Structure to design on (123 residues):
């Protein structure tokens, strides 16, 4: 039970503790020692359980495949196509997530391509 300690050794230890602490203090010491050992055992079990849980979560995370970002296929919009053969790639493209209203004329001016026909004129 106590490793290499036998019954005679335990009796000697008990007698020495009885002499040192006295008959009144010995039961209190035994009770506090028992509570301390129970608390230590409970804390070590909680620590072991939390470590095992963390290891399990990490193993699960390693097993599940990481989601790869989907390839975004860019489709050219009619506004992004060059007008009259001008290929200026420095022109800003219209992004749908911008909160400002879209102004095609401003984009064409920035790209260096001005409209030669007035708006609303039929060709």
């Amino acid at each position: 039970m106590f490793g290499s300690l036998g019954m005679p050794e335990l009796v000697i230890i008990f007698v020495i503790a009885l002499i040192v602490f006295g008959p009144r203090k010995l039961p209190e010491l035994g009770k506090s020692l028992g509570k301390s050992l129970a608390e230590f055992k409970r804390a070590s079990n909680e620590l072991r359980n939390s470590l095992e849980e963390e290891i399990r979560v990490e193993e699960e995370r390693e097993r599940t495949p990481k989601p790869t970002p989907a390839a975004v296929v860019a489709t050219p919009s009619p506004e992004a196509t060059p007008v009259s053969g001008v290929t200026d790639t420095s022109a800003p493209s219209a992004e749908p997530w911008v909160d400002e209203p879209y102004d095609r004329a401003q984009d064409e001016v920035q790209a260096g391509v001005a409209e030669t026909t007035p708006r609303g004129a039929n060709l």
The CA atoms of residues 106 and 114 lie 9 Å apart. The chain has a mean pLDDT of 75. The chain has two helices and no strands. Residues 7-63 form the longest helix (57 residues).
